[in-house]
Write a structure and sequence with these properties.
single chain, alpha+beta, 3 domains, 5-stranded mixed beta sheet, 7 helices
Length: about 280
């Protein structure tokens, strides 16, 4: 059927086909070949209407190829550590642009941020210390003798995520209090510290919770939470929630209540990676 199509249609299929994921390219190619051939060989349609239909079909063909590629990227990046860091970095960039718009110029923003950054360097370590001091225990891991590379990768991801979140909360507090800085400068400085501490504590607790609910091997967000045990037997048997890695690296068991014999979550490695993971 490809040979019977005009040269323009063949070039269009080849160009748009490069956007389609390889696993879906053959089926997509055959479907759109049939659509283009049908549009080109309808004898009862006027030439002007047929040309308009071909142009409309070409636009739909390109949009369909782009959608398939975007959907493939979405599935590949869903729940990954890279997506988390990119999202936090994008929010930091948007917050910086909002602060720049409020200050009016980059020089005014730099002068204001430099003055507030000294307070940030004093408040941030205190917030981090208090948050980690009251944080719950990290998961206990079974059947794992890990490599230092994966342990270092998890810690670097956690440190980068925490740093981006602290920077984001600092930019948000600066942006929120900027309208008051000209009329009530002292009040604005005091509120800026309070807003930063409030958002930083909430953000760091989310960071700890997010880190716990990620696979210890691939750092993807765990999926398929399921209740295990009977709530009426909290003191007699294990009761809580289990979440599994979508790629089969292991599962996390989170108890409903902390007891003397089950005081923290447990990570159990599975499959061929069971001997590669450690705290």
């Amino acid at each position: 059927m490809t040979a019977s199509l005009p040269r323009f249609d063949q070039l269009l299929l080849q160009a748009a086909g490069t956007l389609v994921p390889a696993a879906q390219r053959d089926e997509w190619h055959r479907s759109w070949q049939a659509e283009l051939w049908h549009k080109r060989h309808r004898t009862r349609t006027a030439a002007s209407r047929r040309t308009f239909a071909i142009a409309d079909l070409a636009l739909g063909l390109l949009l369909d190829a782009l959608w398939l590629r975007a959907e493939d990227w979405r599935r590949a990046l869903r729940g990954t550590a890279l997506l988390c860091l990119v999202s936090l970095g994008s929010m930091c960039a948007l917050s910086a642009l909002a602060a720049l718009a409020l200050h009016g110029s980059s020089s005014a923003l730099a002068a204001d941020v430099a003055d507030q950054f000294r307070r940030f360097l004093f408040a941030a370590p205190l917030v981090v210390f208090v948050t980690f001091a009251v944080a719950p225990r990290r998961p206990v891991e079974h059947n794992s003798r890990g490599t230092g590379v994966r342990r270092l990768r998890r810690r670097l991801f956690f440190a980068t995520k925490s740093a981006l979140l602290l920077l984001l909360t600092f930019l948000l507090s600066t942006t929120c209090c900027e309208p008051l800085s000209h009329t009530f400068p002292n009040t604005a400085d005091f509120l800026q510290v309070l807003v930063f501490v409030f958002f930083a504590v909430i953000g760091l607790r989310w960071t700890l919770d997010d880190q716990e609910r990620r696979c210890k091997y691939c750092l993807r967000v765990l999926a398929a939470p399921a209740r295990v045990g009977r709530p009426s037997h909290n003191l007699l048997e294990w009761n809580g929630t289990e979440m599994a890695c979508a790629r089969g690296h292991g599962r996390l068991s989170v108890p409903e209540l902390e007891t003397s014999w089950c005081r923290s979550s447990e990570w159990k490695s599975q499959g061929p990676h069971a001997q590669e993971i450690a705290v």
